[in-house]
Write a structure and sequence with these properties.
glutathione peroxidase activity; glutathione transferase activity; Membr-assoc_MAPEG; Four Helix Bundle (Hemerythrin (Met), subunit A); Membrane-associated proteins in eicosanoid and glutathione metabolism; single chain; mainly alpha; MAPEG
Length: about 150
């Protein structure tokens, strides 16, 4: 059997990439509760525009659903950035992923008010900054690997 040597501290990378599991379960519960409160039946993904304009519960549902969907859209990028960066800088990678996850919690809390503008007003922008850090550090790491390959 082949042996894979992981850098010291890579356990933090593994732990941080697992943290969105709990985030997504929490968001799913929030979506389910908001769906029930708004009376939006499956398989309808969002409340119709007229519903959201006339019902606060429908608007809250749309906002909670969008927070969850947006998290799912960015999750692969966050995980990939964390794993790539974690090969050479595990503490940085784990810290950025932890910040991204916390930022997504704050984003969801703000968005769940039903006022879309509040999605970043309560610290939700932290996730965007962490995502930028993951993209930049992941790109830097890939560049280092490519430079080493060609030298």
């Amino acid at each position: 059997m082949a042996t894979i040597l992981l850098p010291k501290g890579f356990t933090y990378v593994i732990a941080s990439t697992f943290s969105p599991v709990w985030l997504l379960m929490w968001q799913s519960i929030k979506v389910g509760r908001a769906r029930k409160a708004a009376g939006i039946k499956y398989p309808q993904l969002y409340a119709e525009k007229v519903e959201a304009e006339t019902s606060n519960a429908a608007m809250v549902f749309n906002c909670v659903q969008r927070a969850h969907q947006n998290t799912l859209e960015y999750l692969p990028i966050a995980i990939l950035g964390t794993l790539v960066t974690g090969i050479t800088r595990p503490i940085l990678a784990a810290s950025l992923m932890g910040a991204w996850t916390l930022g997504r919690v704050l984003y969801t809390v703000g968005y769940s008010t039903g006022v879309p503008e509040k999605r970043t007003s309560r610290g939700g922008a932290l996730g965007s900054l962490a995502m930028l850090g993951l993209a930049l550090s992941g790109t830097w790491t890939v560049g280092e690997f490519l430079m080493a390959e060609f030298s």
